[in-house]
Amino acid sequence: MQRPIAYCLTAISGIEYWQLFFNRGASVATKIMYCATPSRLRHKSGEVKEFARKMGYVPVIPFDVGPFEEFEGGKIGRARTIALMLQLERGCDATGVFGLSDGTMLEFEDAIIRRQEVRLIPELDPEWDMRKDGYNKQYGPLFGIIRERNWLVVLVGPTAIGKTFWSDWLLENYFGRLRRVRNTTTRTPRNDADRDSYRFISEEEFKREIDSGNFLEHD
């Protein structure tokens, strides 16, 4: 269960506290991250590796092993390719899940079973929310294990005190370690940019997620 932290931005000493908090165990410059990435996102290989580097890891991505056309999409085939990638993943220090697919969910599950460090990184997968809903029935407990390791940080303060400024500062300076939470709503989007701040679902889906205990709070 996520543990909420309420914090009012009133002094720079508070930011210094969060620097210490998020820097705990941050020395990962020599760690190797296996970048679990669906084949549909292979055109984003460069972005995936750069994302991992910004988090302080040395990236290993499946598509650098060999061309997709020769491995998963060729004579080697999907089954042998996944088996090879699982062996490669086991030689790394951490697994970063950059997109959801049948293959990456197997890699995700294998990493959890082996108690490997796992990071879920949805920023580069535009289908993440839709696919996560589909995988929840089979893999819901896995998402729950990852969720239990997170903290919910709430920035509280009066209008114009600088909440947006400091949240942007934290996201920039602790790249990949913090993520802005998107609210879930049943209303329709006002524009395309609205989707960056909100997750839009139907009223039926909203009720199901309430029954499943997926929300910290709702009204």
Which characteristics define this entry?
single chain, 219 residues, 4-stranded parallel sheet, two-stranded parallel ribbon, 7 helices
> How many helices in DSSP terms?
7
Strand arrangement, major sheet: 3-2-4-5
Proportion of residues in helical segments: 25-40%
Task: Report the mean per-residue pLDDT as an integer.
Answer: 80
Q: Assign an overall shape.
A: globular
- Low-pLDDT residue intervals, each spanning 5 or more residues: 1-13, 24-28
Rounded to the nearest angstrom, the distance between the terminal CA atoms is: 19 Å
Spell out the helices and strands N to C. Answer: EHEHEHEHEHEHEEH
Oligomer: single chain
State which percent range the strand residues make up.
15-25%
Number of DSSP-assigned strands: 8
Structural class: alpha/beta
The largest pleated sheet is described as: 4 strands, parallel
- Rg to the nearest angstrom? 19 Å
Task: Describe the fold and architecture.
Helices cover 39% and strands 16% of the residues. The protein has 219 residues and is of the alpha/beta class. The protein has a four-stranded parallel β-sheet. It has a two-stranded parallel ribbon with strand order 1-6. It has a two-stranded parallel ribbon with strand order 7-8. The protein starts with a strand and ends in an 8-residue tail after the last helix. 18% of the residues are buried. The N terminus is likely disordered.
